[in-house]
Design brief:
This protein is α/β, with parallel strands linked by helices. The protein has eleven helices and twelve strands. A hairpin with a 2-residue loop joins strand 3 and strand 4. The radius of gyration is 20 Å and the shape is globular. It is found in: Cytoplasm.
């Protein structure tokens, strides 16, 4: 029987098959080049390279969601600002692994910046004294340029980001991923497998159409043995800034993330409201922490979420 790697996509022909690396199912698989070359399968040498490169990064967190539009990138930038403000003596990094939709440069207010490549690798762009960012958005000629790449090229870019960015000493590295459970996610998990991945943070919104895809993401984590640090329910409720009335813009008809987490036995880290000021902060590239009004529900909820993330990461150290 053909030997099928654990991280292979569905319908993998197996490493010993004549179609290894050549079948349609092989497109985008991180093992494709090795299988197609006919060289006996073995650990990807990039795994050890990435392990060494990230040896000075204490906690590595994947930010995932099977559903697009749930605010995953917004939450990642909010977490970055929150950790940097909470721990001014620690260094925080954000890796924008959403190759086709890099939004972190705009959200963090560093659009138009350029990265520099030296003998030690790419230097990330500094958003603040202890917050840095790497994104393909810095490598495009224009923010409007489309990245029209097949899976293998996107995987190669993720490999470069993980193996060639000179982060220095980092306490937290947040890796913002695109929606889904495909090429980029398989590559990120494979390449980080030997580097001490702390776990995954999964983002959802309350309605069932989002929870359907988030359940798939949680199943993805379970199959690839990625620890789920917890789920954040975003846009849980809208509080009118004028009359203070509460509205469920995305009704939790099946119990929302809380019911899902109880069913699947994963931690619920907290719920964030739908906050117009937070959306404006992300669009303008400002930190929400600098704009938030006194007694902000978002800030209170975010502090509680950060407490749980820090505690979960420390428990793995």
């Amino acid at each position: 029987m053909s030997n099928i790697p654990e991280n292979a996509p569905n319908h993998c022909p197996g490493t010993q098959s004549e179609d290894a690396g050549k079948a349609s199912a092989c497109a985008g698989c991180p093992n494709q080049n090795i299988c197609a070359s006919g060289v006996p399968a073995g650990p990807d040498p990039a795994i050890e390279l990435i392990k060494n490169r990230l040896s000075n990064v204490k906690h590595k967190i994947l930010v995932l969601s099977g559903k697009g539009g749930v605010g995953k990138s917004t939450l990642t930038s909010l977490l970055g600002h929150g950790l940097a403000a909470r721990f001014p003596d620690k260094n925080i990094g954000i890796l924008d692994a959403d190759i086709c939709g890099p939004s972190q440069p705009r959200m963090l207010g560093v659009r138009g910046e350029q990265v520099h490549y030296s003998g030690s690798g790419w230097s990330p762009v500094y958003v603040g004294d202890n917050l840095s960012l790497m994104s393909i958005g810095f490598l495009l000629g224009s923010p409007d340029d489309a990245v029209i790449w097949r899976g293998p090229k996107k995987n190669g870019m993720i490999k470069q980001f993980l193996s060639e960015v000179e982060w220095g000493e980092l306490d937290y590295l947040l890796i913002d991923t695109p929606p889904g459970t495909s090429d980029e996610h398989l590559s990120a998990v494979q390449y980080l497998s030997g580097a001490g991945l702390s776990g995954a943070l999964v983002v959802s919104t309350p309605q069932e159409v989002a929870l359907l895809d988030v359940r798939k993401e949680l199943n993805f984590c379970r199959k690839l043995e990625v620890r789920v640090l917890g789920v954040v329910e975003n846009m849980a409720v809208f509080v009118c800034p004028n009359c203070k009335s509460r509205s469920e813009v995305f009704p939790a008809t099946t119990g929302g993330a809380a019911a899902m987490c109880e069913e699947l036995e994963v931690p619920l880290l907290g719920a964030l409201p739908l906050e117009p000021l937070l959306a404006r902060a992300a669009d303008s590239g400002h930190s929400y922490l600098q704009l938030q009004p006194p007694g902000s529900q978002t800030l209170v909820a975010m502090d509680q979420i950060l407490d749980k993330i820090v505690a979960a990461c420390e428990s793995t150290s």
